[in-house]
Amino acid sequence: MEYFFELFLGGLTRGSIYALIALGYTMVYGIVQLINFAHGEIYMIGAFTALIVISVLTMMGWNQIAILLIAAGVAVIYSSAYGYTMEKIAYKPLRQAPRLSALISAIGMSLFLQNYVLLAQTSDFLPFPGLIPDFEFMEPYAHIIGSPELVIIITTTIVMISLTFLIKFTKIGKAMRATAQDRDMAMLVGVDVNRVISMTFIIGSATAAIGGVLIASHIGQINFYIGFIAGIKAFVAAVLGGIGSIPGAVLGSLILGWTESFFTGYISSDYEDVFAFIFLVVILIFRPAGILGRSTAEKV
Amino acid sequence: MKNRLGQFLIVAVVGVFMVAAGTAMAADTIKLGVAGPHSGDLASYGIPTIKAAELVVKDINAKGGVLGKQVELLVEDDVCKPEVATNTATKMVSEGAHVVLGHICSGATKAAMGIYKDSNIPAMSPSATNPALTQSGDYPNFFRTIASDDAQARLEVDFALDVLKLKKIAILHDKGDYGKGLAEFAKSFLEADSRAEVVLYEGITPGAVDYSAIVQKIKRSKAEAVIFGGYHPEASKIVSQMRKKRMKTIFISDDGVMDDTFIKVAQKYAEGVYATGPMDVSQNSMAIAANEAHKKAYGADPGAFYLNAYSAAIALLNAIEQAGSTDYAAVTNALRTKDVETPLGKIRFDERGDAIGVGFSMYQVQKGVYVELK
Q: If you write DSSP's letter for every residue of B122-158 in order, what string do you get?
């Protein structure tokens, strides 16, 4: 039973990691029906920015928690700026173009950012300091769940609750929902659609950056390629939960995390990915729009 | 144009005569065959061996040769292809090679060995790592100055059983050719030994964001040590996660992990990790001299397997000197019984033809650096 519980928590951590990235995918898709393949790269850039800030601040001898918070703050701002700029450069000009063009543009953006970091930084793995301290009260449970994992799970919960709040109860959230339902109609009633889309990219990038910082300090290493693998998994999680739906992205991520964890724990890690994707296919056969996705009838 | 062609033909014909006359005149030489890829995609693996042989032979001839005779090189190309290698070997035999330095690729070596065996010619490869070449026992005339593919797995297992005296071992790999190959060897060695059992054998997904499930599984298996086949990015993640879960499981890995990046990334968690790696020859005076000679003669740093080839050439010629003749039984016996100083250290060959004293050492991370365990 303890083993089950350990795997459960391991899966929960993994799922939370996916969820922080998947939120960005699902929000952008919900608003502009675009699969933003460069989203994983924003996550990677967040981690790199944080690493640079951390190196500087550590040299100045600051307190560990202060460094973590400042690094996360700078990473969020910097990644949001990247997300905003990316939307203006790569997607806005293609807003009226066929969807395939925007998709190709997203893939191009992803490759561009990867190579940019590869050239501007390095192709090697860089050590990322584990800035989340080991809490004393966690010590008796450290063999089951570490402090960094706990922080990841709590942060994901907070981010998800605040996003839900933002979308349900604020003005910009209302505008987002309106744009997601019908962009032309929203424009007609006076919603500034461009601003809404920019905001979506900024919020999505910010959550990805938070994810980048937390995950990097949990795993302890980064390189220019981390965004690709994490991005693909998070994308799968978003589709599994129903792309466009925020609770769906979180649910999909957790299910994916648990599937991988239990499958590795009880059967074999050799076929971890195979099993995760079989599960995805099975779910999509029975619920083509994902678990919480609504299949909308095509408006004629 | 026609005239030019005519000239060329004359030169070619005269050239052939000169070569033929040359061989006829130098009938009383020791013939060292050098076979390997000297053209094509893999030429860069074969050409350093020719250079090594040239330098060794020049050196030895200047000192009076072997058994009072000058050494002559017979260089033949096999382009690393088994089907070409049989022709290369036949040609070597018909030209009267006494010993052969080669071949380079394992496949080509395997194809050529039968021909040398039938003609009683000892052959020594500086680079063919396929385990079966020595372990099958099919080629008693085969020797090599490089460790076979399973040498690291062998060392890891011996170290776990003899030095650490472990009973329960988990084997993980990254599903790649290199990592899985090593893991499979380690598993078969452990299964052949009754002192320890393999409690877990699994492949992990490289690049995954987190390995907590597999780490929990290691914990549940009660393994005392993990033998990991793969590279440092995954190794550092697994080690860190095990230590964060307060597990003291010993971690043993290969030369894919024996990399400073591993220590840089895993930091304090790297401490105590074992990894096999090539023996350190950078302090060997013969190795330094051999590299210097190459730089002087060719104006560049030596290429792949250069020191292995250099050592093989020395070992072969030394064996002839020691044996007092080029007789097959005497030469192979000398290779197996007489130590010889080479750039790879003092070496001798075991019954199967693998060099003793060449290959891998166990290293451990101590205070942030890899230290060779003697």
A: -EEESS---THHHHT-S-TTEEESS--TTHHHHHHHH
Instruction: Please give the Cα distance from A239 to A253 (Å, whole number).
Output: 9
Task: Give the whole-number percent of chain A exceeding pLDDT 90.
Answer: 49
Contact between chains at A127 and B240 (C-beta distance less than 8 A): no
Contact across the interface for A218 and B210, Cβ inside 8 Å: yes
Q: Does A171 touch chain B (CB under 8 A)?
A: no
B159 and B244 housed in the same domain:
yes
When pLDDT is cut at 50, 70 and 90, the band that residue B24 belongs to is: very low
What are the DSSP calls for B202-248, one per residue? EE--TT-S--HHHHHHHHHHT-SEEEEES-HHHHHHHHHHHHHTT--
Which of A124, A149, A229 shows the shortest C-beta gap to B207?
A229
pLDDT (tens digit per residue) in B148-186: 888 889 999 999 999 999 999 999 999 888 888 899 999
Alpha carbon of A198: minimum distance to chain B alpha carbons (Å)? 29
Answer yes or no: is B362 within a domain. no
A11 touches chain B (CB under 8 A): yes
Pair B163, B116 in one domain: no
Most distant CA pair in chain B, distance: 84
Q: What is the ipTM of this complex?
A: 0.85
- Nearest-CB residue to A3 (from B216, B240, B265): B216
- Give the closest residue to B370 by CA, choosing from B257, B258, B256, B252: B258
Share of chain B above pLDDT 90, in %: 58
When the candidates are 3.40.1350, 1.10.287, 1.20.1250, 1.10.3470, the CATH number that belongs to A17-286 is: 1.10.3470
Closest partner residue to A127 (CB to CB) among B219, B245, B264 is B264
Q: Is B208 on the interface with A (CB under 8 A)?
A: yes
Please name the residue ranges forming H helices in chain A. Answer: 2-32, 39-59, 64-86, 99-120, 147-169, 171-181, 183-188, 193-219, 226-241, 246-266, 272-286
CB-based contact (8 Å) between A141 and chain B?
no
Question: In this structure, are B253 and B315 located in the same domain?
Answer: no
Domain boundaries, chain A: 17-286
**Which CATH number belongs to the domain containing residue B175 in this structure?**
3.40.50.2300
**pLDDT band (50, 70, 90) for residue B21:** very low
Cross-chain Cβ contact A13/B210 below 8 Å: yes
Q: Measured between CB atoms, does B216 come within 8 Å of chain A?
A: yes
Give the gap in angstroms from C-alpha A17 to the nearest C-alpha of chain B.
Answer: 8
The minimal CB distance from B237 to the residues A10, A142, A219 is found for A219
Domain of residue B211 covers 151-272
**What's the number of domains chain B is made of?**
2
Residues B245 and B310 in one domain: no
- pLDDT at residue B20, rounded to an integer: 47
Asked if B284 is an interface residue toward chain A (Cβ–Cβ < 8 A), one would say no
Contact B274, B364 (CB under 8 A): yes
Answer with the one of B251, B272, B293 that is the final residue of a domain: B272
Q: CA torsion, points B262, B267, B271, B274, in degrees to nearest 10? A: -10
CA distance B31 to chain A (A): 48
For B124-143, what is each residue's pLDDT tens digit? 999 888 888 888 889 999 99
